[in-house]
Amino acid sequence: MVTRHDWDIRGGAGTLHVREVRLAAAEKARPMLLVHGARVPGVASFDLPVPGGSLAEDLALAGHRVFVVDARGYGGSTRPPVMDGPADAAGPVVTGDQVVADIDDVVRWSGADRVDLAGWATGGHWAAWYASEHPGRVANLVVHNSLYGGTAGHPMFTERPSGAYRLSTAAQLLPAWDDSIPVPDKTEWRDPRVAASYVDEALASDPAADDHFRAPNGAMLDSYVLANGTQLWDAHRIRARTLVVRGEYDFWSRPADLTDLAADLTGVRELRTLTLPAATHHVHLDRPERGRARLLTEINTWLG
Predict the structure, then answer these.
(1) N or C: less crowded end of the chain, CB within 10 Å?
(2) 290 DSSP 8-state letter
(3) 31-35 and 14-23 beta bridge pairing
(4) Which of residues 152 and 83 earns the better pLDDT score?
(5) Confidence at residue 13, expressed as pLDDT on a 0 to 100 scale
């Protein structure tokens, strides 16, 4: 039976929310941290309470001791005070260097000498950044549908982000996902219960909001920089065994993000790159036959 425990641990900017998901027998297994992306926090990204909606639970059933992390400003973690005021009162908050510090706080709290790290979208950028700064602390790294600053030009990032944070409503969460699914009936590709739960959990992640939730804009600033050809960390410093995965239908990362990152991972102990055929940005929430089962198999095989 999979058990869950929610922790609020001390971080450099207040408290960090971490959800542990594991089997009883995995109590002493090496921690595996799941790092969310730029908008939707950890639980809504990785541990939805519906069948097929929890990557964390599926990894736990394979024997991993999973920790779902909320970076500062997201979900149950402390938000910078500026996020309680107007968004235009300050520039983007919670940039990658701060999230790297948050990951380090969680790693040290775990008590493990080394951890496994997996990040989705901007979470993959943050996880790899951490692995480059702390190469001795990461055993295995998974970078999934993430930007990497090897090439310039991206239709989503033509203007530099401004404002401390951004607001998202339910209506804004699904259109990009819908557009990447190449069939008219989106239920053929994803379970409607997963989509509904994804929206519900994202909205519930912000107790100060009603029909929207807040996300720090620092992630979008990082992404703007990466999408326009500037790197923010040195991939050559990473030593962890590294799996880089990209979905063929991903709207966030580009093929060059995978190949350029792979070319710079010259110091890793082992490297595997993979493009999942006909897989979307949200493949870990799609139906098993639409790439989710293959992604799970690849991650579990890589982690051993």
Answers:
(1) N
(2) G
(3) unpaired
(4) 83
(5) 87
DSSP 174-231: SHHHHHHS-SS-GGGTS-HHHHHHHHHHHHHT-TT-SSEEEEESHHHHHHHHHHBT--
Per-residue pLDDT averaged across 59-65, rounded?
A: 97
Residues 162-172 have pLDDT tens digits of 999 999 999 99
Summarize the chain as % helix, strand, coil (round to 5). Answer: 40, 20, 40
3-state secondary structure of 304: coil
Q: How far is the first Cα of the chain from the last one, in angstroms, to the nearest whole number?
A: 21
CA distance 73 to 76: 8
**pTM greater than 0.90:** yes
> For residue 303, what pLDDT is reported?
94
C-alpha 39/C-alpha 82 separation (Å) is 17
Quote the pLDDT of residue 12: 87
Indicate whether 209 pLDDT > 90: no
Q: What is the DSSP string of 56-94?
A: HHHHHHTT-EEEEEPPTTSTTSPPPGGGGS-GGGSS--S
Angle between helices 218-227 and 96-110 (to 10 degrees): 110
For the packed helices 96-110 and 122-133, what is the interaxial angle rounded to 10 degrees?
A: 70
User: What is the spatial distance between Cα 260 and Cα 234, in angstroms, rounded to a whole number?
Assistant: 12
Are 32 and 65 contacting, i.e. CB atoms less than 8 angstroms apart? Answer: yes
Residue 150 confidence (pLDDT) above 80: no
Q: Decide: 155 and 147 in contact? Cβ < 8 Å.
A: no
